[in-house]
Amino acid sequence: MKYLFLLLSSFSLAQTYKIINEEKTDVSFRGLAIESATNFVVSGSKNTIGKTTDGGKTFKWINPTVVQNRDFRDIEILGKDTYLAMGIDSPAYLLLTKDGGKTWTKVYENNQKGVFLDALYVDKKSKKIYALGDPIEVGKPFLVTSTLTDPTKWEVSKSVMNQPLRLKNPKEAFFASSGSNIYADENQVLIVSGGVASNVYRYTAKGGQLYSLEKSSSTTAGVNGMAYDATNNIGYMVGGDYTKPTDSKYNLYKFKIVNNQINFIDSWKYPEGYKSGVAILSKDKVIVCGYSGVDYSIDGGHNWKNITKDSYNTCIASPDKKSVILVGNKGKIGKVTF
């Protein structure tokens, strides 16, 4: 087990970083859901799902037998011992367990050519579940929805909050790097795209909104993930070009919702390199991760300090905001504690 103690003198804050598991070195982890500081689940390639109830000291590894050789790019905790796992490409699956992973049921299956699911999102206030995918019909995001009341029933959505789903550029799509390119609450749904173009789509009961983001000309660039803290009205979008992990260009956008519009906020400095995941800890504290490593800010994203050069795909803060779990390639699962 690898430990690294960091004292960021200019930030007047200390934190501990450690790799807590590397058992599955042949697995790439991109799915992560946290129930508490001690209970969380991870998901990844080779039909692999893992859960821990002791903060990552030990993991129970699960391979659902109802499907074979799936890449579970995202996973959500719907309730006690109830998980929803997303298998991404044709046939794409959503699997449900209600007994902590002992048995699984296929609650959604799609054999369409070109289907590719990118992210799951659960809004527990509205009890809605969203699964976002790349366009199958030209110019429209593919979105299937369900509810926490009955997650066995799914339907294809043509609209969100009574606003039609559509893409500005028919060739733009979504990155499945971190399962975080969709956000939803009772007031709005946000979707961020990348590839040929990078756009933010905001859907509300009062109408739809489009915001175009700067990116390099590469089709491997754009926004990969986002997080929004409705309590503090602060959000971050992260990305860059995953084929250029050390390039920091267009890798961060900070925003607020003001007068029912997205307002972007300039930063002074930017984190290092390509980023795919972001976790908000408070009004001013935020962590981002990617192939280039893990960076941290305590002043609202204006200044950044590198925590580690270790590569990670996804990061999520614990409910008490005292730690962040990270998952990545080669079975790497890490933890930053504050």
From TrEMBL:
Record carries keyword Methyltransferase: no
Cross-referenced Gene3D superfamilies: YVTN repeat-like/Quinoprotein amine dehydrogenase
InterPro entries tied to this protein: PSII_CF48-like_dom, WD40/YVTN_repeat-like_dom_sf
Residue span, Photosynthesis system II assembly factor Ycf48/Hcf136-like domain: 23-111
Origin superkingdom: Bacteria
Name of the featured protein: Photosynthesis system II assembly factor Ycf48/Hcf136-like domain-containing protein
Signal peptide: none
Organism of provenance: Faecalibacter bovis
Keywords annotated in UniProt: Photosynthesis, Photosystem II
SUPFAM superfamilies linked: Oligoxyloglucan reducing end-specific cellobiohydrolase
